[in-house]
């Protein structure tokens, strides 16, 4: 986490230096252009006189006057340039400090959320195991207590895995391990593998994946994580017999693949839609409903963006389904 924070701060400073250098470059061009125009005006100023009719004293006075004008103009432009540089540095410095505060606030919130999410199952495990060890749990309730401990330990493992995935993807050294493959066949196999599990749980599937091969390099493990996180999120927040929708389409004009994953369940509350892909947003709600960590969609977004694509939640007017996620991935030239 310290490395990630240092990397983000370094990026902020690089942006400041880059912006400042760009400003100096543009201001220098304007400065030199103005100076050249001033010298051009001076040349025309001399053309308006007939030197043969002027005395030496008049020529000296005229030259002194021109030099004064040039010095005054040059000094004014230099002063304006320095003032603008100082103002620009102050404004950018404030902006960088504000962004640093925002980064630090987000880090502190993340630590608080992680602590909160870990504390609940640990407290239950400690309390129940202590009660069993102290012999104060009746024999007929021991199995119930042990099952609760087991469930909470699984939940704790899920939390730790989610935090690990998120921190790993946020690390500046994270890189995809891409391999060429047929994305159509890949998604078809994934859905086929989930079919029995969803059917046994009481969910239905509506699938529309074309037979047309769509070859591209992608990280097979990480992209599976994207599909898994979205579908798991659907199952956690929608009771059966909810129908899950999976489709894929080739957008020829842009040479992109569009994947849509949705459901006809209860939908997503309006106040969560805007920040749905931010870490712990759903997790804040989950602290009352005891569902998930709020990191699944953040991980999905990071993986999709690492592939050069985008992911978004469609607006209600864009789909007839209650919830619909759209993933757009670029295909290489000649892939289809």
- What is the CATH architecture annotation of the largest domain? 2-Layer Sandwich
Instruction: State the low-pLDDT regions, or none.
Output: 1-5, 282-291
Give the CA-based shape: elongated
Task: Provide the gyration radius in Å.
Answer: 32 Å
Strand order of the largest sheet: 2-4-5-7-6
Explain how this protein is built.
The chain has 336 residues and is an alpha+beta fold. It folds into three domains: 2-106, no CATH class; 119-170; 179-330, Heat Shock Protein 90 (2-Layer Sandwich), CATH 3.30.565. It is 65% helix and 12% strand. The chain has helices at residues 2-47, 56-133, 139-170, 183-201, 220-237, 270-273, 281-289, 296-306, and strands spanning 179-182, 204-208, 215-218, 243-251, 256-263, 310-313, 323-330. Strands 2-4-5-7-6 form a five-stranded mixed sheet, covered by helices on one side. The protein has a two-stranded antiparallel sheet with strand order 1-3. α5 runs antiparallel to α8. The relative contact order is 0.08. The model is unreliable at 1-5 and 282-291 (pLDDT under 50).
Attribute tags:
8 helices; two-stranded antiparallel ribbon; Heat Shock Protein 90; five-stranded mixed β-sheet; 336 residues; alpha+beta; disordered N terminus; 12% strand; 3 domains
Task: Give the structure's gist in a few sentences.
The chain is an alpha+beta fold.
Q: Could you outline the blueprint of secondary structure elements for this entry?
A:
Elements lengths: L1 H46 L8 H78 L5 H32 L8 E4 H19 L2 E5 L6 E4 L1 H18 L5 E9 L4 E8 L6 H4 L7 H9 L6 H11 L3 E4 L9 E8 L6
Parallel strand pairs: 2-4
Antiparallel strand pairs: 1-3, 4-5, 5-7, 6-7
